[in-house]
Amino acid sequence: MTRFIYLADTHLGATPMGYNQQIPYPERLSDILTALDGWINQEGDIDFIIHGGDMIDRMSEDMVRRASDLFQFSIPVYLCLGNHDLTAEDSLDQWLKVAPEFFPDGHPEYLLDTPDGVVYVMPNHWCATPYYWGEVQDPQFSSDQHNVFNDALTATSKDMQVFVTHSPVFGLPPAQTLLPEPLHEPAGAFSNTIGNLTAAHPGIRCVLGAHNHMNMHIEKTKVHYVTVSAFVESPFEFKLFEMQSDLLSMTTISLADRLPFKADYDKDKTFVQGRMIDRSFTHLNNIS
Questions:
Q1: What is the pLDDT at residue 135?
Q2: Which residues lie below 8 Å from residue 19, measured CB to CB, with a gap of 6+?
Q3: Which pLDDT tens digit goes with each residue over 146-188?
Q4: Total domain count for the chain?
Q5: DSSP 25
């Protein structure tokens, strides 16, 4: 069994965070990561961590170096670049130079090949300029990304596949928020783009996103679409995935009780954490 952690939106250096859904504590990131390290050491048998993006709040070489220093664990940490990680036109060059350990083979798109399945990481672009976020939020992939992705997944014989990007695929459903419309829907045709990818590669069982700072789980045509709440917002949650060739499961875990400080929580926004169906699932291959 392959077991990995998925977390996102740590916004290192935010003073304060420009967007949040629950009460944020980016200044306590070191304490939160220490608590996570303690959980990993106690749990054991975790293979790697995937950070779903917005590791830092704004690009600078110093901030990337700080992130590299902070995210030191006994297991590998991989990064799917988010919009806040790409606020300068040379952002990708800075990441690959200062923190290459986050990117297998020196590329922002990569495939993690495990004994039980594969995880493919492909950060979405935000405008026509690759790996750069200015003011536009129009999630998209380039033709080069599509080509490399198609080649990689076509070449694998494993039919348990997880796809990771930064933008969510859907907005939070009204059944979760009790609002009249989906919340924080992606702009443009991004949902259709992802739908075409999963249709072309039926081995994709799960699509992981971030960006909205909220837990979400929507199942469509046997594909699980997931986002995770911000790791530095109360109650400091991450996802644990357990993957086998015929099974994929997700559990949402909070670190609030492991922290050396008392965090506040906005009880008017419990939809951020979601219902039980938004926080966990078990998928069996070939079983509806």
A1: 83
A2: 213
A3: 999 999 999 999 989 999 999 999 999 999 999 999 999 998 7
A4: 1
A5: -
The 3 state secondary structure assigned to 38-54 is HHHHHHCCCCEEEECCC
Beta bridge partners of 6: 50, 239
- In the sheet where 223-227 sits, what is the strand order? 110-113, 118-121, 161-164, 204-209, 223-227, 216-220
Cα dihedral 165, 171, 172, 175 sign: negative
Q: For the domain that residue 247 is a member of, what is the CATH number?
A: 3.60.21.10
pLDDT band for position 288 (cuts 50, 70, 90)? very low
By DSSP bridging, strand 48-51 and strand 77-79 are: parallel
Q: How far, in Å, CA of 139 to CA of 258, rounded?
A: 36
Segment 194-247, tens digit of pLDDT: 999 999 999 999 999 999 999 999 999 999 999 999 999 999 999 999 999 999
State how far the Cα of 1 lies from the Cα of 194, in Å rounded to an integer. 27
Rounded-to-integer distance, Cα 226 and Cα 217, Å: 5
Indicate the burial class of 163 (C-beta count within 10 angstroms; 0-12, 13-18, 19 or more): buried
Q: Residue 270's CB: how many other CB atoms inside 10 A?
A: 11
CA 184 – CA 228 distance, rounded (Å): 13
* Enclosing domain of residue 176: 2-284
Pseudo-torsion of CA 55, 1, 246, 249, nearest 10°? -50
pTM score, two decimals? 0.97
